[in-house]
Specification:
Blueprint: H1 3-19, H2 36-43, H3 53-73, E1 92-95, H4 104-113, E2 120-125, H5 133-140, E3 144-147, H6 151-167, E4 171-174, H7 193-200, E5 205-207
Parallel strand pairs: 1-4, 1-5, 2-3, 2-4
Helix pairs in contact: 3-4
Length: about 220
């Protein structure tokens, strides 16, 4: 499917999902479908905490690149309410709407502002771990943690990772809307997962909403 045709299909999928009130439905037709074999080989054994030396090295490089991109992308980003979270002494869960492959840079920009540059992690759908190209490499190596509904993975890898991160006072971004809807400007109903884990690990929720503004300026993402 060509890029323009795929984007039109995504728009139609969002319209249909909106009509059906299925606001957490997948709308990207080209998303990778993770097989049982891939889950067992890659996801169940995924180095969520980047404990292996090779993965640590990749993370240092990837984080340096993304931190620089974050500052550039968000030259015109305005953050409101930052004073409400500067005194949090524990770990925390951040929630946000999800409309772009790079919208996490906005939350990352917020983390830069409050001194959490090195203690920020992102929960992503497991299909993203198989994303090809440079963006895929950056995503995999930038302290991202895959999630799925496999009970074995959740119990043996995902939840122990979250517990360790919160013990070290990390801030973890979870998208409660579950799926990315490209350039969708309205809030969507959230799944309960983020709030469940906030209760389970006794950490606060930091609710964020990213607002886009139309702009004609080249290089201005309008955040």
């Amino acid at each position: 499917m060509k890029k323009d045709e795929e984007r039109l299909q995504v728009i139609e999928n969002m319209k249909q999902a909106t009509r059906n009130h299925t606001f957490n439905k997948k709308v990207e037709p080209s998303d990778h479908v993770v097989t049982k074999e891939e889950r067992e080989k890659v996801i169940l054994k995924y180095d969520n905490r980047k404990k292996k030396l090779r993965n640590k090295a990749k993370t240092i490089v990837a984080r340096s690149i993304v931190d620089s991109l974050t500052e550039f992308i968000n030259l015109n980003t305005e953050i409101k309410g930052i004073e409400n979270i500067t005194n949090i002494k524990t770990g925390a869960i951040i929630t946000s709407n999800h409309f772009s492959k790079v919208d996490n840079t906005i939350i990352r920009y917020l983390m830069h502002k409050i001194g959490k540059k090195r203690k920020f992690d992102i929960i992503v759908q497991e299909c993203n771990i198989f994303m090809p190209g440079s963006l895929g490499w950056l995503l995999k190596n930038n302290r991202t943690i895959p999630i799925n509904k496999d009970h074995k993975y959740i119990a043996s890898n995902f939840e122990p990772t979250l517990e360790k991160l919160f013990d070290k006072k990390h801030f973890v971004l979870i998208y409660p809307e579950e799926e990315m809807w490209f350039n969708y400007k309205k809030p969507r109903p959230g799944k309960i997962g983020a709030y469940h884990y906030a209760c389970k690990y006794n950490v606060p929720i930091i609710p964020c909403f990213i607002e886009m503004q139309n702009t004609d300026k080249i290089g201005d993402d309008g955040f």
